[in-house]
Fold these 2 entries.
Entry 1:
Amino acid sequence: MDKEEADLKRGPFAFFILAILLTFISPRWAEAQKVYRIGALVSDDLFVPAVEGFKKKMAELGYTEGKNVKYDFYNAKEDGDNLKKLAQKLVQDNLDLIVTSSTTATVPVAKASAGTNIPVVFLSAANPLEFVKSYASSGNNLTGISTGVLELTAKRLELLKEIAPGVKRIATFHNPKGVNYQAQLTEVREAAKKLGFKLWEINVTDGKEIEQVTATISRKVVDAIFLPPDRAITRDMGVIVQQSIKEKLPLIPPPAVLNVGGLASYGHDYFALGQQGAILVDKIIKGARPKDLPIEQPLKLNLVINLETARAIGLKVPKEILLRADQVIE
């Protein structure tokens, strides 16, 4: 048998072997080449660090932007109507997965994606029960991380009592239009009652109302100010900070805006929450279903003290609290 005849006889057999190999190899090869499209939506600039932390951790987990993952990032810039439109767009774009940060951004995405198979991972949410069945199982296409900020209301008020034991009367700001309004109000009232605080509940919905009512706050009527995690309030926090310093009043804001000038706070860090959320996304990409992943709590909570503000209001922070602090702003 010459070489030409041998090659002709081997031809069909070789083709058969090659076909079998391709049957087993090609799906894995195709999966290795898949570029995952992930949409990201935040309600305003405050939550951008969560997405930054998410992308950094995703890169550490092997997802290289432009190679095997592509991000479509949107910031609604505090525009409620735009937020709803962007949520609809993300769902219609047939993405592999969507991440959000804040309850405000997650609610419209949850509604728009209801009944679909699009996994949604919220990198932060003050009140996940707005869109999931329970912390053990969402019962739907969502999973993510609770900031625990509502549950930490009592801890933040306890912190106020430790730093300024003489405080009895507290002005608290609330936004009746906020998605977490009722839950926040309940938590503040219950914690204040246990700690013996008397509340002056102030309802505001915009900067103009905040400016008007803040001008009436003084040491004659209250001993301290407490702010909930609501962007309608904290975006105009500078006015409240100025009045608190003028009147020498301790101000306890949400942790994410402490650097604006509050005295102290205790809670999460958005960048770290984003990194934590990336691990959840990696699990989903590898086959886990959102409803099988329990809602997580922050892996780390930070106690931050602003000594610059303390000096400005003439308050000496106890040494034992400074020793416990994760960060001290000088």
Entry 2:
Amino acid sequence: MSAKIISGTEVAKEIREELKAEVKELVEKHNVQPGLVTILVGENPASVSYVTAKGRTAKELGFNSIQDDQPGDLSEEDLLKLIDKYNKDPKIHGILVQLPLPKHIDENKVLYAIDPDKDVDGFHPVNVGRLVIGEAKFYPCTPYGIQELLIRAGAIEDGAEVVVVGRSNIVGKPIAMMLVQKAKGANATVTVCHTRTRDMKAHTLRADILIVAAGVPKAVTADMVKEGAVVIDVGVNRVGKTPEGKAILEGDVDFEAVKEKASAITPVPGGVGPMTITMLMKNTVRAAKMAAGLPLD
């Protein structure tokens, strides 16, 4: 029997409808409009596309959305001044600096300059520390999306055996830390595998939930997956083009083979990807409520 498909496209749509209603209530009852600024330095085509999508989504939800485009030769000093300006702006609750930045700018210095209470990406060391000790204000957006997919699919239970393939600071490490917390949608026993893991298959075959963020097409094959496991594929790999020139995308999991063994699986595209921008919006609404002293969920 083929696996249930966990559609990130559908779940993201649900969450956005919930956020739209929440923003409407914030504006009407509390005169609080979530504010998000996206700062783009230079004209990297992928970055332009991402920033445009984020701004469009923010506006659709009723945010005060600002796209601040800066030239590629902007100095590091001027970028830090710009961030400081938005740190002090009470109408801005979330600050997002689109990466990668030009080579003459120190990305860490820039990300660390953002007020942790406006760091809606969740990457500031203060927010990483809050996550580790179980006092997170914001979760990094892709891991947050993964956890939300698991919760809404009813796929995670206390004590679940979770195996994460990949140890990046963006996905692998934070999702492992989130799922090990004493909290709803967590309480898991988590194993993290990576390029130096000796016998990856021995670990992945134990997984009730297998989260794959390896960055390698079809890194996980059917023989590595336990019958009935839930599989979350984070990978988006461009493996070619159609005759029309459209990119062919493939995940880190051999989808066609693994879906015959798994109980549930995310597709690529349409799985984890659509959740990332949506959870960024959720973090921004949370930041607006925090700034206004309103109760949080």
